[in-house]
Task: inverse folding
């Protein structure tokens, strides 16, 4: 608003204090992030020097012979997170649409309480459930039959199915990020004025056309923001993933194969990393995770911008 | 108004009660000793520390089981009074210590080769060569003739071999890969030994419970876990051929035998591996777990701490080990360790 008048804003008395009060945390977060990058770079220095650029191009993790490469873990992180979004985004948006547009109010309220509860479950519980119940069930009733039927000619579905692996991890992740997508999408849909829906109906639109034109259309920016937030959580999730991904650093096209993510590798090896170069390599993985998250979020933001500033 | 003053009185009463509690706690004031390290001996150590309260209430030992590597780092930084590790410290780690530390072996543990093969009537018997071939992926089916050769009369099914290893860095992996490196020169050069190694094949489970879970869930899986986890989960484990050529089942007694078999070769600093030990009854995959104790301590902490260490390696302390599936030290070794404890200087 001040921009339109061209004058610099003036603050007096309590306004001034309030301004300081809110700008402090706003500045503290970027400072904290810079601090993290600086600290990680410092710790990763021995590895940056001895492993060189090869660190980002190698598929090997051998603490005994001190050869480290992060590529397999970048692959694991991206594959599990993107698969999780592919599963959770349509389901979450559909759930939000059901709650705001179709369900009777009482049912909608109950459904929203239940989905929000999903967000409160500790990740270790997701992990244990995934490992002891979901993984064996997936192997027996889904992965093994599917890979036997079509795995021969679709490399993404090739066996053998271990039960744990990229797909199981993605499925558990998708459950964990579902409440984020659902509740944000729900709030976005709710914020659309009733008149807009009625206008579409008055023009003779069917229920689906009305939903598409006056609810989904204007909400795209909000949905994209919800997906970005969920993606952030999926990229960094550690505990649940490590229990169901199989913990093998490899690039394997099959989604049923075991893999490993950056966050899970760090959690696995940090406590027992005996020598300095191993610790430094783990810090460098942390640094890589930081930049991968940064790049993915920036790409997401670019997409978001396209939707909101048409 | 009235309600307010009532609330004040209640608050006041609460605060004074708190102060009184703090004051009495101060009065007793036991000496706190802080330690951190290996997770493997944690159940025994916490049992020890609680039982020892009845012996000597003037000392309170806090132990955080954060992993051997992290325990050694904390000891190096001086943020704990003692560390604990399953693998002995490396020369590089020792060189970083400001105050030299003693390795005090407390008990021993066994690592077993556990498997899930349906319909097996007898326990598997594995030679060193077979253990290596299973874990480096050379044998990929359970009906491999090499397995049949050392398991006569056992109907092994046509089932793929799946390998499960520890994904988290661990002393268990260190002991197991130390064994593999001793029995196979090929393994020693290609993979080597350590708390985390680059496994040629298989999938990783987090923690002993994770590997035990993988074995339990998937038919055809073979993995290595600590003895107690195999027993707790009702998992079968193989009889292994030891250096003397006998097939031995893992048990706390067979582990104590392994330590007895190696006693002549145990150096003064106890930094030794007892895998593939001599002796007909020795179980081949076992190792010590150590407390890492600074060789110089302030008197106020050191005196009760030394008393505790002596109790831990005495018959009173060692008798707590077997029920928890740890192997007690052979008495001859415990006598040697007592001499080492006596070398801790108080200032």
Result:
């Amino acid at each position: 608003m001040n921009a339109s008048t061209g004058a610099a804003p003036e603050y007096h008395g309590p306004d001034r204090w309030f301004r300081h009060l809110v700008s402090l945390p706003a500045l503290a977060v970027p400072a904290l992030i810079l601090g993290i990058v600086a600290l990680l770079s410092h710790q990763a220095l021995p590895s940056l020097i001895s492993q060189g650029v090869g660190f980002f191009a190698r598929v090997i993790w051998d603490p005994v012979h001190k050869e480290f490469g992060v590529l397999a873990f970048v692959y694991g992180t991206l594959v599990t997170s993107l698969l999780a979004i592919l599963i959770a985004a349509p389901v979450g948006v559909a759930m939000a649409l059901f709650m705001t547009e179709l369900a009777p109010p009482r049912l909608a309220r109950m459904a929203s309480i239940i989905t929000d509860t999903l967000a409160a479950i500790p990740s270790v519980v997701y992990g244990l459930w995934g490992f002891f119940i979901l993984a064996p069930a997936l192997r027996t009733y889904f992965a093994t039959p599917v890979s036997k039927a079509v795995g021969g000619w679709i490399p993404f579905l090739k066996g053998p199915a271990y039960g744990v692996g990229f797909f199981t991890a993605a499925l558990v992740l998708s459950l964990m990020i579902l409440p984020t997508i659902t509740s944000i999408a729900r709030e976005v849909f709710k914020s659309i004025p009733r008149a807009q829906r009625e206008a579409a109906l008055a023009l003779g639109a069917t229920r689906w056309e009305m939903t598409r034109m006056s609810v989904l259309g204007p909400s795209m920016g909000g949905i994209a923001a919800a997906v970005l937030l969920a993606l952030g959580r999926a990229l960094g999730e550690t505990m649940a993933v490590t229990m169901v991904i199989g913990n093998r650093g490899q690039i394997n096209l099959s989604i049923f194969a075991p893999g490993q993510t950056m966050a899970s590798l760090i959690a696995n090896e940090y406590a027992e990393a005996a020598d300095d170069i191993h610790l430094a390599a783990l810090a460098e993985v942390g640094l890589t995770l930081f930049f991968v998250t940064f790049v993915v979020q920036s790409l997401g933001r670019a997409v978001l911008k396209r939707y909101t500033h048409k | 108004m009235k309600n307010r003053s009532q609330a004040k009185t209640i608050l006041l009463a609460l605060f004074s009660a708190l102060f009184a509690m703090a004051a009495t706690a101060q009065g007793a004031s036991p000496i706190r000793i802080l330690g951190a390290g290996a997770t493997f001996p944690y159940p025994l150590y916490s049992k020890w520390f609680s039982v020892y309260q009845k012996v000597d209430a003037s000392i309170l030992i806090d132990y955080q089981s954060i992993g051997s590597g992290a325990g050694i780092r904390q000891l190096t930084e001086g943020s704990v009074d003692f560390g604990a590790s399953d693998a002995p410290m490396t020369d590089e780690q020792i060189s970083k210590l400001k105050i030299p530390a003693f390795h005090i072996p407390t008990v021993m543990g066994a690592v077993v080769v556990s498997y899930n093969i349906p319909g097996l009537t007898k326990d598997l018997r594995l030679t060193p060569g077979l253990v290596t071939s299973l874990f480096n992926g050379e044998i990929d089916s359970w009906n491999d003739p090499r397995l049949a050769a050392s398991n006569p009369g056992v109907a092994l099914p046509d089932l793929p071999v799946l390998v499960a290893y520890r994904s988290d860095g661990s002393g268990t992996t260190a002991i197991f890969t130390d064994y593999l490196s001793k029995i196979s020169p090929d393994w020693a050069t290609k993979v080597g030994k350590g708390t985390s190694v680059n496994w040629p094949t298989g999938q990783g489970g987090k923690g002993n419970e994770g590997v035990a879970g993988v074995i339990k869930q998937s038919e055809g899986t073979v993995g290595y876990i600590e003895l107690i986890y195999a027993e707790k989960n009702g998992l079968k484990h193989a009889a292994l051929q030891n250096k003397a050529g006998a097939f031995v089942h893992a048990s706390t007694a067979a582990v104590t035998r392994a330590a007895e078999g190696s006693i002549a070769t145990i150096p003064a600093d106890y930094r030794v591996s007892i895998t593939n030990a001599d002796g007909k009854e020795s179980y081949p995959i076992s190792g010590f777990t150590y407390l890492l104790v600074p060789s110089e301590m302030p008197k106020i902490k050191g005196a009760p701490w030394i008393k505790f260490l002596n109790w831990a390696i005495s018959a009173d302390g060692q008798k707590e080990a077997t029920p928890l599936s740890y192997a007690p030290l052979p008495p001859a070794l415990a006598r040697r360790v007592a001499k080492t404890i006596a070398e801790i200087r108080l200032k």
Q: What stands out?
A: The mean pLDDT of chain B is 89.
